[in-house]
Structures are given as C-alpha cells and as structure tokens.
Amino acid sequence: MFPQAKRRRGAYAVGGRGWVELGSPLFDVVAVLAQGVKQRELLDWGGVAFRVLNVVAAEPPAFESGRGRFRTSTPVVMKGTGRDESGQRTTRQAWLLPTDQEFPVFFQRNLRRKAETLGLDPEVSLTEISWVGSKRSFSVGQGAKPGAPVEVELTGPPETLQAIWSWGLGQANAAGFGWVTV
Predict the structure, then answer these.
(1) Is the Cα torsion angle 116, 105, 181, 13 positive or negative in sign?
(2) Is 138 helix (H, G, I), strand (E, B) or coil?
(3) What's the pLDDT tens digit per position in 109-123?
(4) DSSP assignments along 133-174, one per residue
C-alpha cells in the first residue's frame, strides 16, 4: 500500500512511503522471511526498488471464541464449475463473484482444503458475507481474474482461523488476491 502513489489503471501503484505485506500460513516461514528482509536495505520486487526501513511480523488474532471477521483489501477470486443447469461445461473460466449463488459453497470448500493442506482441523464454516466491495479484475499470468473485496464471518478452530487469516481468502493468494487486512 502506497497512499501517496499516483493511481494507475489495472496495476497497484507504488511510490513514496508505504508498506508491503507478505504472509504465509506456515508461521516458521514468516519468521525466516522476516529475518531475511530485516538484513536487507533494499528489495528489488519486479523491477521496483523498495528501501527497507522497518520489518514487523504481524501475529494473527487469537480467535479464542472460534469466530472471526475477515475483511480483504484485495479482491477475492473463486472459480465455479462452469457448468449449466444440465451439467454441461460451458466455460473453463467460470469466475464467481461474492454475490453469485454458487460462491458460498465454493468459498467454504476452499477454506476446508486450505486447512486440510496444512494438516489442521477442516471444520471451518462461512456464516455470513457481511460486505462486498466493487468488482475488480487484474491480469495475472494468462488473463484477467475478476473478484471483489469482501468481509466475511467464519467459525472454526482457532488455529485454523489463524492460518486462514495469514494465508488469505479465496484462490490465487500467491498473486495477491484475498489479502486479509490487519
């Protein structure tokens, strides 16, 4: 986030003072990454030079109650089946928006797959989509991925909620989609 940077259509703008957030649901990876970045004065990120002034490791909330509200600063992308009512595939690029009827089912499946991937309890549930931001599309790799920022309420084991908070919501998190705000 670079609040004073001049906006550019279709790209995240950089310039002036700002911050870069990196994350992982593997907390040991975050600790090593933070140590490595602390030892640098300058980072070259895709041809953009960042001067490192400070590094802070953000701890995920405790989620002791087994409930959490997650709001993203970047669009959440999610693919659906791409099939019509008869079950026939009509498209391979069946991107869903949070307002689409299929979205909650695919979103919850994604949360459970993430938990299973990490060896955590997958009993996490979407209980509410409380806010949906404006649709945004970004070109990543071979085409545009549409989505929208969201605020959702989830229930589940605290450790699973912490990992999801650190990983992000939806798909394509490594490309910056679904980043949960601190």
Answers:
(1) positive
(2) strand
(3) 999 999 999 999 999
(4) ---EEEE-SSSEEEEB-EEEEEES-HHHHHHHHHH-SSB-GG
